[in-house]
């Protein structure tokens, strides 16, 4: 074949070229963020095609997300300089395995048109099995079983291969139930997500002829983000590459962030053992980020003990230092970021003007997104949420909203259908059918139909009782809604000034400003909480033992919190329907909001990293865990976050945040301490120095720690000093009201035995209360006397 031009090789550095041109045998590209691993991998595909080594369908290329697969496909076309008929086996593990499994379904007793169950289906099926086995589903919830089964599937463990220890999980019935579940799936001609890989591994292991066929077929194998493969994926790859060993894996041990989902960073470290004679390429030049950003990321990741260690350097221009800013609370943080984005868009920060498409907000926990979504909607800033539904589209939020809608308008039949049996009230399909029929024959709403049905005794048993209770509740909640809500102050008053502590409208129960508490029996915020509690909806998620449970509860708290910005439930519901209507037009430039996990492999000129606070990032779970494993994974996530930024990286934290509905003082993340001072600029929150981020408004140089402490804790000595300083200079005083709320709620709501959090001493239980003094047995610091206003409640 005549040699074709290879312009794509000229875009690579020598190390990358080496990885691209060494086509035969195992190659491992192990390198830090932004060093062009993905670029080299893409060039390798192009080179395989261009040199005629492989036809498009002889290349198996695995990416981490569908989005990454699409991008890689486009780039291959672009680099080749002529259209390819596609690289059919370029995709995620799951996408590739679906295709393969359809061809060989019969080998695992399925038909090729099998269906793929989603999480909801999966849980429903497991629930049926649990009940059929006479197990108490309340104590042993389906969601717990489903996460166990997912974990086993990630490890490529079939029911037959399950070690005795695992089989004994779930009240000694785990193994048995797993087996029944797999049988049931076969009867239904269905698979779940984990099965896609598990079945393929089983097929390859049990049918050497099939494996051999694919070993010949896929002549070249390429894998991106190898550090995040789980055992099943690893086995699958190793089986496929077992013949020719033409496998090229790229990854970065510092970016392994899916340990919690069964990924094994060991897979990348073991590569040279698995494939003796593997050629290892290390890339050190980073092409993505400025030196400051790179230095910050490198310094943070240095805190991890368990790593290979890599050097990174860059020739990019010096650019801006990493920007760090502390805010009053989470809402303030969202407001500031919104303003900052608008300023950057118009180029008024002394930086080049940027398109919204060039900016991203990367959050640690999805519940953080709500504040941004609300704020951006208010100021009309276009945004898109990637990976996972937008806040108001989440299951638990939709359920909760359905309750609110039904209270506001009892004719909302869709809302009624959604919640009538959520949580379970013994009102299954038959009962719901009866309600429908009754409503239709009387020409009334479902709520009214249900009432008539009960009156006519058309429904019996537990269902009838529960339905009566639900109707009664709905009526009562609705009664509470019709209070003198119109006497509320306007939004701004609620938002900006906070409640006046001395005023009787401060609500002791909730410890939260409820401006109409003095005039209405129940404010709309309490009403929302009452609805969620009395309906059993909150309890339903509290009893949920899966990893998602706590997140869903967080989201519900966030939802209640969002109500603070509105006069009443009606106004809130209108706001949300607006959000839902605001559906995306992808031609328009938008800010991206996504989780840090979802941002792996991506890059943006400007990145905002909000919520760098202990307990949020790193997560409380990782901090509570014994050992450093969880914390190290969080640190890698911080490294991933910082290294997404090309030009501007802004890290922020809030001094106060509502966690589980309670205001808590937050400590800046320990990762902030690990940022190198020389590469960081501390910005000042506008409330303190009257706005603006010019050099003149920056505090004079003190140790990074102290500056951060000053900016942060509003009731810390640092904060008091800062107040004093601001006062001396005649600058605007920080708002005090909300911090008083924290203190007051703390005093009024504590009882002996409560679990509390103190900034210095950590978690503890209250032993004695004397006026505003508490004796607390701290878990780490021992028993101490502290002032009540220095601790916050914790239901962690
Ligand atoms: P991550 O670890 O975050 O996935 P990566 O190692 O895969 O990063 P790439 O995304 O491939 O890095 O590349 C980072 C950026 O550097 C991209 O914008 C890419 O186009 C650019 N780049 C990579 N190699 C070169 C090169 N040799 N010359 C110029 N730019 C390059
Ligand atoms: Mg990459």
Automatic annotation (TrEMBL):
One of its GO terms (biological process) is recombinational repair. GO terms for molecular function: 3'-5' DNA helicase activity; ATP binding; ATP hydrolysis activity; DNA binding. It catalyses: ATP + H2O = ADP + phosphate + H(+); Couples ATP hydrolysis with the unwinding of duplex DNA by translocating in the 3'-5' direction. It holds the Pfam family UvrD_C. One of its GO terms (cellular component) is cytosol. ATP binds at residues 31-38. Residues 291-601 form the UvrD-like helicase C-terminal domain. CDD domains: DEXQc_UvrD, SF1_C_UvrD. It comes from the Bacteria. Belongs to the helicase family. UvrD subfamily. Has both ATPase and helicase activities. Unwinds DNA duplexes with 3' to 5' polarity with respect to the bound strand and initiates unwinding most effectively when a single-stranded region is present. Involved in the post-incision events of nucleotide excision repair and methyl-directed mismatch repair. This is DNA 3'-5' helicase. It comes from Shimia thalassica. The gene is uvrD.
């Amino acid at each position: 074949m005549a040699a074709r031009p290879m312009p794509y090789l000229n875009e690579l550095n020598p190390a990358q070229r080496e990885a691209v041109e060494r086509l035969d045998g195992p190659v491992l590209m192990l390198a830090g963020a932004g060093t062009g691993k993905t670029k080299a991998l893409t060039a390798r595909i192009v080179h395989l095609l261009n040199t005629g080594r492989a036809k498009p369908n002889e290349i198996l290329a695995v990416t981490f997300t569908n989005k990454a697969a699409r991008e890689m496909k486009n780039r291959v076309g672009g680099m080749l300089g002529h259209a390819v008929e596609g690289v059919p086996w370029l995709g995620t593990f799951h996408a590739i395995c679906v295709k393969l499994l359809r061809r060989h379904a019969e080998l695992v007793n399925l038909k090729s048109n099998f269906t793929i169950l989603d999480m909801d289906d999966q849980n429903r099926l497991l629930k049926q099995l649990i009940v059929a086995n006479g197990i108490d589903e309340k104590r042993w919830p389906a969601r717990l079983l489903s996460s166990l089964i997912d974990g086993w599937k990630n490890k490529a463990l079939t029911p037959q291969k399950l070690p005795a220890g695992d089989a004994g999980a779930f009240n000694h019935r785990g193994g048995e139930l797993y087996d029944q579940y797999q049988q049931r799936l076969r009867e239904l001609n269905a698979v779940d997500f984990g099965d896609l890989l598990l079945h393929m591994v089983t097929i390859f292991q049990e049918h050497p002829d099939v494996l051999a066929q694919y070993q010949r077929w896929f002549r070249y194998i390429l894998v991106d983000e190898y550090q995040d493969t789980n055992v099943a994926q690893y086995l699958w790859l190793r089986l496929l590459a077992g013949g020719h060993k033409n496998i090229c894996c790229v990854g970065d041990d510092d970016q392994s962030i899916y340990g919690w989902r069964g990924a094994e960073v060991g897979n990348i470290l073991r590569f040279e053992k698995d494939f003796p004679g593997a050629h290892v390429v290390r890339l050190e030049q980073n092409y993505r980020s400025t030196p400051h950003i790179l230095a910050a990321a490198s310094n943070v990741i240095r805190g991890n003990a368990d790593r290979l260690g890599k050097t990174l350097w860059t020739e990019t221009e010096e650019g801006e230092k990493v920007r760090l800013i502390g805010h009053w609370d989470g809402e303030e943080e969202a407001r500031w970021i919104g303003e900052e984005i608008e300023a950057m868009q118009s180029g008024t920060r002394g930086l080049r003007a940027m398109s919204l498409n060039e900016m991203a907000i990367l959050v640690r926990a999805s519940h953080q997104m709500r504040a941004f979504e609300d704020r951006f909607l208010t100021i009309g800033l276009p945004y898109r949420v990637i990976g996972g539904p937008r806040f108001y589209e989440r299951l638990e939020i939709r359920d909760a909203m359905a309750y609110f809608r039904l209270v506001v308008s009892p004719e909302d039949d869709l809302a009624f259908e959604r919640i009538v049996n959520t949580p379970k009230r013994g009102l299954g399909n038959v009962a719901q059918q009866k309600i429908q029929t009754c409503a239709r024959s009387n020409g009334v709403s479902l709520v009214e139909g249900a009432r008539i049905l009960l009156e006519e005794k058309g429904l019996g048993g537990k269902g009838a009782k529960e339905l009566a209770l639900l109707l009664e509740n709905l009526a009562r909640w609705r009664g509470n809604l019709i209070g003198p809500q119109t006497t509320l102050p306007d939004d701004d008053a609620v938002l900006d000034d906070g409640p006046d502590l001395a005023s009787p409208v401060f609500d002791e129960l909730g410890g939260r400003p409820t401006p109409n508490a003095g005039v209405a029996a129940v404010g709309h915020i309490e009403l929302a909480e009452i609805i969620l509690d009395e309906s059993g909806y909150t309890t339903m998620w509290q009893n949920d033992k899966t990893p998602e449970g706590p997140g869903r509860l967080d989201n519900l708290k966030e939802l209640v919190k969002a109500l603070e910005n509105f006069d009443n439930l009606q106004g809130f519901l209108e706001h949300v329907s607006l959000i839902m209507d605001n559906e995306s037009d992808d031609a328009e430039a938008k800010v991206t909001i996504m989780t840090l996990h979802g941002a792996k492999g991506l890059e943006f000129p400007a990145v905002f990293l909000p919520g760098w606070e202990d307990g949020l990032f790193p997560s409380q779970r990782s901090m509570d865990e014994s050992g450093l494993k969880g914390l190290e994974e969080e640190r890698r996530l911080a490294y991933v976050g910082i290294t997404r930024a090309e030009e501007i990286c802004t890290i922020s934290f809030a001094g106060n945040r509502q966690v589980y509905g309670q205001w808590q003082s937050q400590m800046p993340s320990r990762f902030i301490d690990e940022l190198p001072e020389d590469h960081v600029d501390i910005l000042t929150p506008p409330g303190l120095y009257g706005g603006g981020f010019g050099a003149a408004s920056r505090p004079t140089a003190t140790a990074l720690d102290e500056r951060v402490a000053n900016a942060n804790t509003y009731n810390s000595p640092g904060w008091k000093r800062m107040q004093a300083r601001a006062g001396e200079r005649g600058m605007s005083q920080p708002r005090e009201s909300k911090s008083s709320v924290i203190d007051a709620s703390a005093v009024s709501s504590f009882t002996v035995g409560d679990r509390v959090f103190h900034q210095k001493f950590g978690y503890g239980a209250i032993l004695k209360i004397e006026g505003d003094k508490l004796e607390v047995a701290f878990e780490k610091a021992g028993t101490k006397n502290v002032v009540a206003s220095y601790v916050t409640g914790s239901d962690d």
